[in-house]
Structures are given as structure tokens and as C-alpha cells.
Amino acid sequence: MDLENQRRVKEFAEQYGPENVVVLLGAAEGEASGLAAETVTAGDPTYAGPLTGVSLGLTVFHVCEPEVKAEFDEAVYDEQVGMMEMVLDIDDICNEMQSIRSEYCKYLG
Distance between CA 21 and CA 41 in Å, rounded? Predict the structure, then answer.
């Protein structure tokens, strides 16, 4: 997650309260998704950005996870994500996201 996005996420958490912020990711690999998810939950593991040492514990999902996908209009999802979803390792992404949520998320409902 780039430094500008880290700054924006931190500002939103401060403005609205971390319990009211959900981060939706769309990275193409489980490892990249996991790194971004860890950044907004446990803090920046690269020690380079505004979230270094900041454990926000935010709720985080990937757009391809079934519980998120179910929230979209099917036609819109297919148009925006469908083609990419065919080449992604969805199981790997879901497993990575679940692992990060179970370890670091503070606000799962």
C-alpha cells in the first residue's frame, strides 16, 4: 500500500473512528492483499509509511471474497471485476485475508 493511501486510511480512521471504517482491497495476489491488509490492521510492516507502528485494527476485505461479492449488483461486478476474477487465485486471496482478519482486526461484527 503506497504512502498516500496509508495517509488517507489513517485520516479516515481518525475522522470517522476505526470501528466505522472498512477497507476494500483489490490486489491481484494473496501476498499483496495480505501485505495491504496487515498495513491497515497491524501497521506498516515495511516501516516506511504513516501507518508504521500504528495498529488501527480496521476491518478489511478483498473485493473477490464471497461475502463482499454478494453485496454488489451482479452486472456491475461482472463488468468491473469479472474478467480479472477468472485469472486470480481466489482461494489464496481469501485464505490470506481471513488469516489477517482473525489475527489483527479489532472491529469484526
Answer: 11
CA–CA separation, 84 and 80 (whole Å): 8
pLDDT, tens only, 67-106: 999 999 999 999 999 999 999 999 999 999 999 999 999 9
60 forms bridges with which residues in the sheet?
23
Residue ranges of the domains in the chain? 3-104
Please report which confidence band the pLDDT of residue 44 belongs to, taking 50, 70 and 90 as the band edges: very high
How many angstroms from the chain centroid is the CA of residue 3? 15
User: Does position 109 have pLDDT exceeding 90, yes or no?
Assistant: no
How many Å is the Cα radius of gyration of the chain?
Answer: 14
CA proximity to 64, closest of 104, 22, 97, 99: 97
Tell me the backbone φ, ψ of residue 8, rounded to 5 degrees. -65, -45
**Nearest 5°: phi and psi at 32?**
-65, -40
